[in-house]
Amino acid sequence: GAVVSQHPSRVICKSGTSVKIECRSLDFQATTMFWYRQFPKQSLMLMATSNEGSKATYEQGVEKDKFLINHASLTLSTLTVTSAHPEDSSFYICSARAGTGGNGYTFGSGTRLTVV
Amino acid sequence: GIQVEQSPPDLILQEGANSTLRCNFSDSVNNLQWFHQNPWGQLINLFYIPSGTKQNGRLSATTVATERYSLLYISSSQTTDSGVYFCAVGESSSASKIIFGSGTRLSIRP
Questions:
Q1: Which is it for the CA torsion A80, A74, B31, A5, positive or negative?
Q2: Which chain B residues are closer than 8 Å to A112 by Cβ?
Q3: Does residue B31 belong to the interface with chain A, where contact is any CB pair within 8 Å?
Q4: CB spacing of A97 vs B96 below 8 angstroms
Q5: Which three-class secondary structure state does DSSP give residue B12?
Q6: Cβ-contact B92, B46 below 8 angstroms
Q7: Nearest-CA distance from B14 to chain A in Å?
Q8: How far apart are CA A26 and CA A72, in angstroms?
Q9: Residues of A in contact with B96 (CB under 8 A)
Q10: pLDDT tens-digit map of A20-49
Q11: What's the rounded mean pLDDT across residues B47-74?
Q12: Which residue is closest to B47 within chain A, CA to CA?
């Protein structure tokens, strides 16, 4: 089945530094990937849609200059949290869809970011 | 945008009991999935079910697209069924993104 690999699984960084999270589709090509954020005891909120070879589409209220998304190839999308602050601490999850239908979306295992 | 509501928000049951989780959505959809999020945060895809009925072991799901709801049934609950269950839908008018409901937190007690 379709597999999405996400790294790192856990990261702790100092306030003011930047953190990069990678999302890879291992056995399929993904022209579109999605980035979600989940705060404790809350649902997953879509942050942006990552399009291969073009700019990401951000949801309303998400700062595109703070959350930089790069989708350089059909199997890799990266999310960089720039100048991280404690309020950016959250669980970040990526997803992708293999094919055009019948399989739904596959999710990475998530990255737990803690900014101290 | 589309609104997705799940009920109940919390559910506590004894092992062996059956349960029904509901997902209502406000517009027509071309994608609907049920997920189980385990304690480590991993989302386990249970069903891809934009319409119709599917069954997988003790779990089954039904989506009535014309009435804009889906149901997830869990029979003979086990403690390992505990966790949060999410319904996620994709709007028919949207390119491809899916939106998550607020989830149902299920606790199965031994």
A1: negative
A2: 41
A3: yes
A4: yes
A5: strand
A6: no
A7: 22
A8: 15
A9: 32, 49, 97
A10: 999 999 988 888 899 999 999 999 999 999
A11: 97
A12: A104
Range with the largest mean pLDDT of A26-30, A51-55, A74-78: A74-78
Which pair of structure tokens corresponds to residue A97? 């869809």
For A109, nearest residue in chain B (alpha carbons) = B42
Of B17, B10, B9, nearest in space to B110 by CA: B17
DSSP states of A5-53? EEE-SEEEE-TT--EEEEEEESSS--SEEEEEEE-TTS-EEEEEEEETT
CA distances from A59 to A34, A62, B74, B99 (A): 11, 6, 34, 11
Give the Cβ contact number of residue A18 at 10 Å.
12
Residues of chain B found within 8 Å of residue A107, distances taken between Cβ atoms: 35, 42-43, 45
Say whether residue B28 is in contact with chain A using an 8 A CB cutoff: no
A16: number of Cβ within 10 Å: 10
Tokens read off for B91: 């709007």
CB atoms within 10 A of CB B94: 17
The tokens describing B8, both together, are: 């109940």
